[in-house]
Please model this.
Amino acid sequence: MKRLAFAAAMAAALAACSPRAKSPEAQAPREQPQEQPQEQPQEKDMADPYKEKLTPEQYYVCRQKGTERPFTGKYYDHHEKGTYICVACKQELFTSGTKFESGSGWPSYFQPIKDKVREESDSSHGMRRTEVMCSKCGSHLGHVFDDGPNPTGLRYCINSLSLDFDPDGGDGSAES
Ligand SMILES: [Zn+2]
Model:
């Protein structure tokens, strides 16, 4: 019995040491890139990739056109210099130089960064308003009203949940 076990062990050791051992790994063709798509979730939420990137609250506002309750957002009473960016796609939207105190409870700006927001008429909730969206990813940001201050007379009333803040971005003072 012992001799048999020894022979078996030797055979195994010889096979393991053999440089020509044909292990499945050594023979596998180099096609690893094809395996990556399998890691993506495919069965659900394919319609909107932002569902996984955003918190449920952010998703409700940005992608389902919700509105946060006033005086609850983190940016309505925020006064640092910098740039407000889209929370979904990180595009720059507003600079702190255009932010003003509207008293509405939502962060308010008299002007967006050029070409960074899209506007569309919105007749939901029995009101005629103009919806403001990120021009890059289409996320809902808020609405624009014509009761703002100079120089534009506009009030971009934006949800904090739609925004992120970049203190290293420009504050608008250097823009033409
Ligand atoms: Zn965006």
